[in-house]
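Why run this: before we spend reagent on co-expression, it is cheaper to look at a predicted model of the complex and decide which construct boundaries make sense. The entries below are exactly what would go into the expression plan.
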Amino acid sequence: MSPISRGFHRRHEPDADPSRVPPGQYVTADFPVLSAGPTPRTALKDWSFSITGAATPKTWTWDEFQALPSEKVTTDIHCVTRWSKLDTTWQGVTLDTLLGHVDHTGTFLLAHCDGGYTTNLPIADVLGGQAWVAYNYAGSPLAAEHGGPARLLVPHLYFWKSAKWVRRLELLDHDVPGFWESYGYNNYGDPWKEQRYAGD
Amino acid sequence: MPATEPDVLDGNAIGGMLLEVFGAEMTTATGRCGSCGTASVVAEFAVYLRAPGTVVRCPACTAILMVFVRSQGRTCVDLTGLAEFG
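The model came back. Tokens follow.
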């Protein structure tokens, strides 16, 4: 019997196109669940999504949110813990659509989530078809452990920016670091520049 | 509650990290939650390791007690969620 269990190997995808894999990442077929706390399970009847801050406030119920025009997106995602997953499929509402419902002067946003998690983004990085609030994954409602009922999807940045259980976007005229950013993770998080930590 | 979560561990999971940071065995130390006031032995804390850092929560109210982030050879430690520790 081998002293090394095959179960401890990472499940790499050997045929992945290396041009799609940022430096320091490996490709996995799994969808690892990362969590810094208990998984919130908000009933859809109690769920709402809001935009506040440097904007006329706007709130949608779940049904109102579902009635917004949505897009189906196929994209690669890259976690700062070094896994990447290619060709993930999502459905959600673009932040172009959501921010189009408010008059605002914000240049940054802070995403607030059930459970207290926050993350910050420049507004310029969530417009132009770069970001969504996604509620379906792989053709099914987004599971709670992956951020359902709805999560941010900002696939050009490390996946901690794609905040699970997002409930509110606070628009700001200045940058405010989010949860991991305040503990030394990079404020921007470009996987192609390997911006994992502050100073990278 | 943390006990029903598949990825939550007890405080023994951070015994090595606490030894590294404090230079002493700390799993039998007591910490008092700054949010709800509950005093718990470290071994009873709820620990989430599967994240960009390690997040330690109160077993009673789930408030964050400690955060550890390793980056560039250093460990960033935040204990501000604890009202008392030792």
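Chain B touches chain A through 20 residues (CB under 8 Å). The mean pLDDT of chain B is 92. Bring this page to Monday's planning discussion.
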